[in-house]
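Write out this protein's structure.
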Amino acid sequence: MNAIKNILEGIGRVCSCIFPWNTMKMLNAVIAHLYTGYLKHRFSRWGADSVIAYKAIHLKGLKYISIGRHVQISKGIQLTAWDHFQSSDYKPSIIIGDNCIIREYTHISAIGSIQIGDNLLTGNNVLISDNAHGATTPVLLDLPPVLRPLYTKGGITIGNNVWIGSNACILSSVSIGDGAIIAANSVVTHDVPAYAIAAGIPAKIIKQVK
C-alpha cells in the first residue's frame, strides 16, 4: 500500500512540474463554466456572469430558485426548494441577489420564502433553512424524522452586504438587516438589526455599529 501511495505522489509531483498551478486553476474554471451551462436553464432565473462550481451535493426544485448577477457558488452546495414532501405540498421560493459569494458546503433550503439581498458573503458550511422535520408534537415525535412533514415558522430575509461566518445556522422566521455580521458557529433564531454583530448559540447582539 505504501508503495502505491509513493507512486501516486510521484506522479503528482511530475504533473506539478508539467502543469503549473495556474493551469489547474484554469481547468477548474473551465469545468465550472461547463457545469453552469448544464444547470442554469433549470433555474427560474440565472443572472449574467454567475457561476456554480462542480459539483453540487444536492439540487432540488431549481425552478423555484432565482440567482442574481455575478454570483459565485462554490462546490458542495445544497440548494433545495421543496414543493412536496411526505404527502404535504408547499410553495417555495429562494431569491439570491447580485454579487453574492456562497462558499463551500453551504445549504440553503426552503418550503416557504428565502430572500437574500446583494453582496452576501458566507463562510464554509453555512445553513440557511426556513424548515425542519416536523413540529414538536407527541404524535410527530413518535415518527422517524424523515417521515415527518416539513414545518416552518416563517420565511427568512437577509439584507444587503451581510457577512455570515463559517458553520453558522440561520433558521426560520428570521430577518437579518443590511450590513450585519453573523459570527462563525452562531445559530440565529431571532431577528438581527442592520449593522449589528451577532454571535453565540442562540445568537445575541454583541455590538451595534450604527
